[in-house]
Amino acid sequence: MTSPSTPQENPRTDSLIEYPSLFPIKVMGLKVDGMVHAVTAIAEQFDPTFDATTVELRESTGGKYLGVTITVTATSREQLDEIYRTLSSHPMVKVVL
Questions:
Q1: What's the predicted TM-score (pTM) here?
Q2: Taking CA 40 as the corner, what is the angle to CA 34 and CA 43, rounded to the nearest 5 degrees?
Q3: Which residue among 17, 18, 42, 83 is least packed, with the fewest CB closer than 10 Å?
């Protein structure tokens, strides 16, 4: 018995995101001087239309950590991958969601 063949799924090309679209990214790290500037500079590097006035900040209960939510205009999967890689490799950043 054979089953009908189905096309190979490629997670790189199959996406639930329609481009371009606004895409929020949450970045967390220690609450230190320069953290917000570092995150927004990376956003501006990958999205020339990035609006820093849309940044949302959320401090941890103890005040040691800071959550920074940026909203970028996503134009491709590759762009989003590069933003995540760049943010994740920054020394001030602990987590990127």
A1: 0.84
A2: 145
A3: 18
Beta-strand ranges (E) seen in 2-97 are 21-30, 56-59, 65-74, 93-96
Strands 65-74 and 21-30, bridge-based pairing:
antiparallel
Instruction: Please enumerate in sequence order all residues whose Cβ is within 8 A of that of 88, keeping only pairs 6 or more positions apart, or say none.
Output: 96
Cβ atoms of 84 and 77 closer than 8 Å = no
> Helix (H, G, I), strand (E, B), or coil: what is residue 4?
coil
Segment 25-72, tens digit of pLDDT: 999 999 999 999 999 999 999 999 999 999 999 999 999 999 999 999
Q: Which two tokens stand for residue 56?
A: 């949302």
As given in the structure block, the two tokens for residue 1 are: 């018995």
Structure tokens at 50: 């990035």
CATH 3.10.100.10 is the classification of domain 21-96: no
